[in-house]
Amino acid sequence: MKKLSKATLLAASLALTTSAYAVDITKPAKNGYNQQKVVYHVDDINMAKAALRNVKNHLNALGDENADIIVVTHSSGAFALVDGAMGKKDKDGKPIDLRDQIAALANRGVKFEICANTIRGKKIPKEKINENATIVPSGVAEIAHLEQKGYVYLRP
């Protein structure tokens, strides 16, 4: 079996972390907007449903091919990416389960990230983490990193 060079492995890993679409913020999208790169910050499970609705509306306004959207979760917001939300309930006492909304948005190109520090701190079993989520070392550091790469920060 042929060994891959470090450069090849790096290029492959970068390809996996880029958007499903090549977004150029100088090019037009729909409705008078340009294409956009956005990071949504979700750190509260009680805001997660609204955040996902915002993401859906954002895609509807721009067109899926015109947006590179990443949802970064940490603190109690990370439970949005935990199947069954580990028993968390909304303000009406109904169990929170956002799997369908996450799957639908992931199918539209949205990426989801969950903080490893939160996974450890809240003792979230890795097998309960939604299949569409990628684990990042630190949610807040990831947000800063994405902002440095030109992503616009939004916190619903």
Structural class, from secondary structure content?
A: alpha/beta
Oligomer: single chain
Mean pLDDT: 89
What is the CA-atom radius of gyration, in angstroms?
16 Å
Short structural description:
With 156 residues, the chain is an alpha/beta fold.
Note down, in words, how this protein is organized.
The structure is a single chain. The protein has five helices and five strands, in the order αβαβαβαβαβ. The protein has a five-stranded parallel sheet with strand order 4-3-2-1-5, sandwiched between helices. Strand 1, helix 2 and strand 2 form a beta-alpha-beta unit. The radius of gyration is 16 Å and the shape is globular.
Keywords:
single chain, 156 residues, alpha/beta, 5 strands
What's the SSE blueprint?
Layout: H1 6-17, E1 36-42, H2 45-62, E2 67-73, H3 99-107, E3 111-115, H4 116-121, E4 133-136, H5 139-148, E5 152-154
